[in-house]
Amino acid sequence: MSHDQNPTAPRPASAASGTGDPAVVPQFAPVPAGRPRRRYAVVGTGHRAGMYVDAITGAHADVAELVAWCDSNPTRMAYYDGVVGQALGLDGPAGLPTYGPDGLEAMVLEQRVDVVVVTTPDFTHADLVARAQAAGADVVVEKPLTTTDVGCRTIADSVKSTGRDVVMTFNYRYSPRNSSLREVIASGEIGDVTSVHFEWVLDTVHGADYFRRWHRQRENSGSLLIHKSSHHFDLVNWWLGDVPARVFASAGLRFYGAENAAARGMGERPARGTGVVGDPWSFDLTADPRLQALYLDAEHHDGYLRDRDVFSEGITIYDNMALVVDYARGATMTYSLNAHAPWEGYTVAVNGTKGRAELTVVERGVVIIDDRGHVVLDPSATPATQAAKLAAEGIRPEAEHLIVQKHWEPAREWPIPAGVGGHGGGDAILLMDVFRRDLRLGDDPLGRAAGYRDGLAAVAVGIAANESLRTGQAVRVADLDLGDDLS
């Protein structure tokens, strides 16, 4: 039941500050004296759970406390229990009660859980959200909300019947570069939006990683069009203040997988990456103590292999995707995602009746291989790889720029304030909203907090895209029956 978020994403320029710019960091009232902390349980103790565990035991320990774990894998729960014990200054593990997936309802009742944090594989989200709400808890859920129209209806029905809350953690909304583009559009600076072009490229570190893990099978993740792209589709929905109406998609598995490897004459491949030397496509779990503890040391319980070969059989997701999306108020988006690029980042161009805004982000300008044939995650570790990185950055430096140009005027750079933490400086700001939003002083003019309807609108594009790929036709979102009227 672990939700493994990619641990290799680089720290961007907008995350350089330790405190963040007041323009994007909300202000919160002090915690009232004597107010009890909200009781949280984490369901799914994979890599991504760490962000919430660290927040609850660290910056937000005054308003939140962890009271239980729920997972099918005892080794992963034990790992995080040790993390919490250390954070609390104990001599050993925290000793929090543990439950299997079937014990979710008992956990909520017995541990008096206020909020369940769901960080499990995507296809399990809908059932867990509905069960947690029916048991009496609110829910914080990682993106994507769910992977199918059935899952959407399950969550929509649950919210209506229980009245319980669902917080979607769309952390990219909180990235200052993305909220700055929202500010440009909302201000009317470029007029009414007529079209958006959005290209996202994942490099051969980050992109390849999805083809090693449970994401590689469409029934688990809904493909990258849902697992990864729901981030991107939510951004466009939020930037435009609009909802998707029609989707046409084209996609294919053209780089990873056994057939593509054979066509390129790659020869025999190792079944998994751990222990392999000299192959940049292999991922050795022993190189990262956290991943070794969460996966290699835990796989004897459930057989989950975190380091499968990206060129093996059984991959059913795509590595090249392109969409045309019509929006309810008339704008059109062209979108592409590539998962095997030599660099990582994205470009967004927003055309309006008064001009154009262009956001360009390079998150990692080059993937470097060391003298042992391994991918270098930290190029500053040795002088040689640092020199290679600096040489590459002369052409494609890690940077972010937001350019605005109105008709008959020169282009100008729009300032991007400093954020805090990962995901473009958005993670730490998101967590403030997740754990202390009731203490926020004033409304957020950027409207960054997301609920389940935002989650529905984001996955609607991916669900419609998958249907379009199946039928070869454009798909109207209204025909999907997602359990709620997005318009």
From TrEMBL:
Q: Where is the Gfo/Idh/MocA-like oxidoreductase N-terminal domain?
A: 39-168
Location of the region described as Disordered in the Swiss-Prot/TrEMBL record: 1-31
Q: Residue ranges under compositional bias (Low complexity)?
A: 22-31
- Ranges for the Gfo/Idh/MocA-like oxidoreductase C-terminal domain? 182-475
**What GO molecular functions are on record for this protein?**
nucleotide binding
- Per its UniProt record, what InterPro entries does this chain match? Gfo/Idh/MocA-like_OxRdtase_C, Gfo/Idh/MocA-like_OxRdtase_N, Gfo/Idh/MocA_Oxidoreductases, NAD(P)-bd_dom_sf
* SUPFAM superfamilies recorded: Glyceraldehyde-3-phosphate dehydrogenase-like, C-terminal domain, NAD(P)-binding Rossmann-fold domains
One Pfam family from the record: GFO_IDH_MocA_C
Superkingdom in the source lineage:
Bacteria
Annotated PANTHER family: BILIVERDIN REDUCTASE A, BINDING ROSSMANN FOLD OXIDOREDUCTASE, PUTATIVE (AFU_ORTHOLOGUE AFUA_4G00560)-RELATED
Kindly provide the name given to this protein in its UniProt entry: Gfo/Idh/MocA family oxidoreductase
Organism listed in the record: Xylanimonas protaetiae
